[in-house]
Amino acid sequence: MIYKIILYTLTVLTILEAESFSIALLPNELIYDGNIKTDTIKSINHSNVDLSIFTGDSKDGDSLCSDEVIGKEIKRYFNKINTPVLYAVGDNEWTDCHRKSNGNYEPLERLEFLRKTFFSASNSQGKKPIKLIRMKNFPENGRVIYKEVMFVTFNIVGSNNSYIAKKKQCFKKSNRKWSDCEKINSEYAIRNQANIEWMQKSLNIAQKKRLKAVVFIMQADIFSPYDPSNLHSIKKLFKKKHIKKSGYAKFVISLLNALDSFDGKILLIHGDTHYFRFDMPLSKIAPEYRTKFFRVEAFGDEAHDWVKIDIYTDSKNIFSVKPVMLK
Known about the structure:
With 327 residues, this protein is an alpha/beta fold. The protein has a single domain, classed as Purple Acid Phosphatase, chain A, domain 2 (4-Layer Sandwich), CATH 3.60.21. The chain is 28% helix and 22% strand. The strands form three sheets. The chain has a seven-stranded mixed beta sheet, with helices on both faces. The protein has a six-stranded mixed beta sheet with strand order 1-15-14-2-5-6, covered by helices on one side. A hairpin with a 2-residue loop joins β8 and β9. α2 packs parallel to α3. The radius of gyration is 19 Å and the shape is globular. The N terminus is likely disordered.
């Protein structure tokens, strides 16, 4: 097994004896086409990392959402990782489980199963769990401070954050009735507001404690389907027509309004589109946040690769990102 590490940085790093620690960002779809990505575990366990992060999608989107697959199998996977694991749920393990190919499960029942299986206690996942603060009624939303950096998980998922904007979307690849989708939309509205409040409160706490950085962890690409690197494209995100049909727009707008409440750096870590990237997604629409707000997306699909993120709390260039390519 050969592990190849490539360094990606947005700026030239000048880091001399800075306080630092490292994170392993797992790929999405730990079980892909029936195959478990065990070589990823071996690579991470042989690396010098302090925490591991999983941005959801325990399995691919066309397989069963059984208790064994999204519960026991993933529990076993996490328990083989030598670090604490922070887990943000993805759409493949609850939102999309209504699909015929997934077993015609009821998504809200699958979400409750995940809550009981992974989030009923204050501990994280992993062989060496750490304590988190969990949000009341939304225990999958967790928060922990580690070496002057706050880590915050959210239940913000792909498939438009489970929001069904058009009636025809309710029945796609599914046996659902419209009454089922009305329940889904009601759940979305409550959860979306809870996520906004969780984000705002976390930034306020981080500011009071004078933390160096906050790391937001979720599965969804909240800027989708628009391209943040294209000003014309990303401007559409804020048009009334988009806000009405988007499961992310209200959170993004609230996030932009809350950024100034925290003086430190912010890193958004997500999965969803399975395209590795390290960029500054707000630099076009809010240039003042070019050196404040960063984004890393995890690998996914068939890729077993993972991402090593070094955090230097005493440096202006706090985040260093290295994709670890497995061959």
